[in-house]
Amino acid sequence: MMIKKITAASLLVAAAVTMPFLSWLRYAPLPDWVSDVSCVLLLAISMLFSLPARDDTSLSISTVLLPILGFDIYLVMSGHNLANATVLIAVLAFIFLWGLLFSIRLRAGDREDFLLILASVIFIFSMLQVVLGLLQVLGLAPLLHGYVVFDPVGANSNIIGNIGQRNQYAQFLSWGILAACYLYAKRRLRKPFFIGSVFFLAWLSACAGARLVWAYALIFAVLGWCWSRQNKAETVCRMSWAVMVAVVLMVLTQLFSQQIAALLSWLGIPIHVVSGADRFFSAGFGIRRRIEWTKAWEIFQQYPWFGVGWGMFPAQSVEMELTGGLPKYPESWLFVHCHNLFFQLLAETGIIGVLIVFTTLFYALGAYFRKGEQSAENLLLLGIGGVILAHSMFEYPLWYLPFLGMFLIVLLLAPVGRVMLPMRAAFVRIVGLVAMLLALFYIGTGIATFRTMVEYVFPTPNVQENVRRMGALFDVGKNPLWTNDVDIVLANYLIPSREQLDLKLQHFSRLAAYRPYPEVLLKLAVLYALDKQMTKAEHTIKLAIANYPDYAPNFDYRLAMMKKEELKPLQLITSKAAKAYVDHGVQTDPGRIAAVMTVASPVTRKPLF
């Protein structure tokens, strides 16, 4: 029975970090809710099989769990902008309690069995993602009635699997490559099938156009070389050899992706993909990331100890785009994250938050390099951890629960010390069951809430129906776990007018401090103008143009349609920006820059890097 429980828990945990990526249910305003909640569901069910035995008197956990709890407590005690951190606090609390049971249940003797299951599940689901990627490469995804995600603009050129984003897709395929290497080392994959599967995983990574694959290959090569020198055991040697083969295939498919495409076209299978190598040599890693890193650094300098507050980077970034004097590379979408884990934590949680997180990372990941820890299992874990961390330096995969769950597994299984829990097994069982039931309750009630949000995301022409919908949304918004998301949807219903002006100003001001989307800024500017706060109104409309220049003609048209005397100063600003945008080219970089420069401060400095 004990073995069956461990196996069931292992399968559920492995499924939690892989299966959600297959989800095609991506709907506004929360396109990732289904995949995230699927991860929570599977982890919650796994807790039932991870409960300690009633008579267990030696409950020990990984020391990595302690700073996770510490960071959660820090977010609560820091106090400012607590509303934005509510969901994260709840998620970290759940993860801590799940990790507690997982760490207790997975003792040293069960570690290898768990990793064999984990590697097998990762490999299976990565190959399923390969199939989905091939359907996209061949242009067949649009024919499958929405069950395969695709980019309407580039259905056969933007290869994203069902994960929905090229870099996340390539990262997951890189997990699959490492899993294949581990299964080969454990003699669970024969050499021909190993080489063939790794080729497809590497080639689809190249088709995705993710430049970070080069970093992943370098990480694998360095780790494989280090492990081969430190441990001469047969399994480690087999895995080191497999990793080197994988690195070669990753590099070759990147360098010769155009030749592979030409060969397929000659065979009558035309494809239109761009590899990460092509994108890297043509555009490097992108100036816009470096600009956002610079903004995060300046926010940190203003709020060094505790940061500006969780979730507050977007509003600060939008303000700096207008007044910061940084180079102009507008992209007309909101940067909710600066695309670097270190800088993001510096900006939003300050030195204290960074010390908690990165001290833990150095402690846990560094333990894998200690003498005598160079096993095939640790190579698998550290390789995956290295991939996630490298990706986190250029994007934010840890803001998605399956990636966060996988990274937590890497940390919890690190060869670090353990601490004894000074409590009875019965108490731990009760706490675990309560946490599981609360998670399941959230999911059960959340499904209905999510459906309401999706159905009501945009208003109808019927005024009475819209009033009814707003009432339902206000009721949903009373739950602090849904408040911010509901506020964003309500913004689509609230018309900027003099009726209930104070309440509307309060609503849109709060939204602009959290998610300053173009619609939010436009309506807030109108409300300020109607309230005769013209300085704020003009500043807000300038924020909108500086950050979303592609919307400048739309802003100008909508202000003109409102036909209100108070809005004429705003129209002067939008009409000038719209004219510059059209004159220099619609949907072009010169057009965007021309519109931005009608309102923004001139460029006076360079980004950090």
Q: Would you kindly provide a brief summary of this structure?
A:
The chain has helices at residues 2-16, 33-48, 65-78, 82-105, 108-137, 166-185, 191-207, 213-230, 234-255, 257-266, 276-283, 287-302, 313-323, 341-367, 376-392, 401-412, 425-455, 463-476, 483-490, 501-512, 518-530, 534-547, 552-562, 568-584, 589-596, and strands at 60-62, 418-420.
Q: Count the helices. How many?
A: 25
Number of strands: 2
Percentage beta strand: under 5%
Element-level helix/strand string: HHEHHHHHHHHHHHHHHEHHHHHHHHH
Q: Low-confidence spans: pLDDT under 50, at least 5 residues?
A: none
- Main β-sheet, spatial strand arrangement: 1-2
- How large is the radius of gyration? 26 Å
Average pLDDT for all residues: 93
> Which structural category do the helix and sheet elements fall into?
mainly alpha
Q: Helical proportion? A: 55-70%
N- to C-terminal distance: 57 Å
Silhouette = globular
Major sheet description: 2 strands, antiparallel
Number of domains: 2
Blueprint of the fold:
Elements: H1 2-16, H2 33-48, E1 60-62, H3 65-78, H4 82-105, H5 108-137, H6 166-185, H7 191-207, H8 213-230, H9 234-255, H10 257-266, H11 276-283, H12 287-302, H13 313-323, H14 341-367, H15 376-392, H16 401-412, E2 418-420, H17 425-455, H18 463-476, H19 483-490, H20 501-512, H21 518-530, H22 534-547, H23 552-562, H24 568-584, H25 589-596
Antiparallel strand pairs: 1-2
Helix pairs in contact: 1-2, 1-5, 2-17, 3-4, 3-14, 4-17, 5-6, 5-7, 6-7, 6-9, 6-15, 7-9, 8-9, 8-15, 12-13, 12-14, 13-22, 15-16, 18-19, 20-21, 21-22, 22-24, 23-24, 24-25
